[in-house]
Amino acid sequence: MTTDRTVKDAAVDGVLAPLRHSGGQMYLGEPVTQLEHALQTAALAERAGAPAALVVAALLHDVGHLIAGERADGKDARHEDVGYRWLADRFGAAVTEPVRLHVAAKRYLCAIEPDYVASLSAASRESLTLQGGPMPEAELGVFEATPWAPEAASLRRWDDAAKVPGRIVPGLAHYHRLIAEALEGR
To answer: Sign (positive/negative) of CA torsion 52, 149, 154, 11?
Structure first.
């Protein structure tokens, strides 16, 4: 007989599978792995007092990279859309929407904060070019009016700060309960 706990554990394991299986890959020109980046982003969100669903979004925001891989032709792989679609089968909007919007949030912040672009890593500046560059003025109001835009902007800031080699943060097991709750809250 299968217990609720076993089913929940299996569901959480399914969510974490891409990080467990492919998280050892280096993170796109950064000095950390995909897993280190994910864990650092989640830890920064948690430290900032983010709601549980946003901490889960922070942990999983780049899952699209792990699922789709990277394109070798110099084009954007649209990892935010790939990740959103994968996550939408499992979670509600409080997790999926910040993930879907985190690249747009980068473009938005680059457009409204003059020093933001300079604060990005070299790899992030390079991907910004592939992602369309700073958001044009005509799109700023649309982004600002989008539900989940503030959460996506917060996620983006944690994302940018989560590239520190050797930073000590909790491991995947620390997020098990939060993921299980977010799965139930769908």
So the answer is: positive
The residue type at 109: L
**pTM strictly above 0.70:** yes
Q: How many domains does the chain have?
A: 1
The answer to whether the CB of 96 falls within 8 A of the CB of 84 is yes
Q: Is-contact 99 153, C-beta < 8 A?
A: no
For the segment 74-114, what is each residue's pLDDT rounded down to a tens digit? 445 678 889 899 999 999 999 999 999 999 999 999 999 98
∠ Cα 98 93 137 (to 5°): 40
- Alpha-carbon span 53 to 59, nearest angstrom: 10
Q: What CATH number does the domain containing 158 carry? A: 1.10.3210.10
Q: pLDDT tens for residues 133-143?
A: 999 999 999 99
Paired tokens of 116:
């933001």
Q: In this structure, which amino acid lies at residue 110?
A: C
| Residue 80, CA distances (Å) to 57, 60, 92, 146, 172 in order | 11, 10, 16, 16, 21
Q: Which domain holds residue 18?
A: 4-184
CA distance 28 to 22: 13
CA atoms within 13 A on the CB side of 90: 25
